[in-house]
Amino acid sequence: MGRFFVGITGASGHAYAEALVRGLVTGGHGVDLCLTRAGALVIRHELGVEAGERGELLADSLEGWLGAEIAAEVKVFLPEEVGAPPSSGTAMGEGAILAPCSMGTLGRVAAGFSSNLVERVADVSLKEKRRLVLVPRETPLSQIHLENMARLASMGATILPAMPGFYHGPKSIDDLVGHVVGKVLDCVGVDHRVSTRWSGLDEPPEEPGTEPLGEG
Fold first, then answer.
1. CA nearest 70: which of 184, 208, 211?
2. d(Cα 114, Cα 34) in Å, to the nearest integer?
3. Which of 39, 157, 212, 213 is the S-S candidate for 152 at Cβ 3.0 to 4.6 Å?
4. Are 67 and 93 in contact (CB under 8 A)?
5. In this structure, are strands 132-136 and 3-8 parallel, antiparallel, or unpaired?
6. Strands 132-136, 95-101: parallel, antiparallel or unpaired by DSSP?
7. Predicted model pTM
8. Quick check: is 118 in a domain?
9. b/e for 65-88, b at 16 or more Cβ within 10 A?
10. Are 17 and 108 in contact (CB under 8 A)?
11. Is residue 203 part of a domain?
């Protein structure tokens, strides 16, 4: 099927990125993956994935992180590779997802300032009117944060904060992560079973799929 670009920044919440990549590949899509320099530091801290100072080691770490089957469908780009295929509007992709998205990255995208590949791909998605989903993970939010999110929403981007719900009766962190990632996958039209769906107050929560989100 198609390919999605996934940009991972220095915001906390890299478990969302991992589950997202798994969900996209399981749904039949390839993934173009890029870590910002800050993202390379945080992924080591939160997930124990060694990516180097600028993501240069991530390609070698993919199989150990995601497993061979998922890793085979992922192509890694460095943040300074602004000439990579996803950076051009002529390279047709299914869309771009920034997860987690730091407020610094979000602000630069809102201002049209592309300092790396992640921001450039987001900029291309806006100008080509393609799907762009940003998953901010920050709290509390300042007025600047809110204004930047409103500005991007007015341009056609989807702002999907990492705010998991509890109506599905989560029993683990994976359940909470899956709730958010399921919403992201719904936004970009990818079929999945990583989260439960609402069936009404009088019905028991639907069981999610059996795919583990945090195991390689």
1. 211
2. 14
3. 157
4. no
5. unpaired
6. parallel
7. 0.90
8. yes
9. bbeeebbebbbbbbbebbebebbe
10. no
11. no
Half-sphere exposure of 67 (CA within 13 A, CB side): 13
Give the phi and the psi of residue 20 in degrees, each rounded to 5: -65, -45
Full 3-state SS string of the chain: CCEEEEEECCCCCHHHHHHHHHHHHHCCCEEEEEECHHHHHHHHHHHCCCCCCCCCCHHHHHHHHHCHHHHCCEEEECCCCCCCHHHCCCCCCCEEEEEEECHHHHHHHHHCCCCCHHHHHHHHHHHCCCCEEEEECCCCCCHHHHHHHHHHHHCCCEECCCCCCCCCCCCCHHHHHHHHHHHHHHHCCCCCCCCCCCCCCCCCCCCCCCCCCCCC
Two tokens, residue 90:
């002529």
Measured in residues, the chain has a length of 216
Q: Give 10-residue mean pLDDT values along the chain (216 residues).
A: 94 98 96 97 97 95 97 97 92 93 98 96 96 97 98 98 91 94 94 78 60 45
Query: Can you give the residue range of the structural domain that contains 163?
Result: 3-187
Single-letter code of the amino acid located at 211: E
- Please state, in angstroms and rounded to a whole number, the distance separating the CA atoms of residues 152 and 107: 9
Does residue 8 fall inside a structural domain? yes
Radius of gyration (Cα) for the chain, nearest Å? 16
Whether 14 is covered by a domain: the verdict is: yes
User: Total domain count for the chain?
Assistant: 1
Place of tokens 């929403």: 153
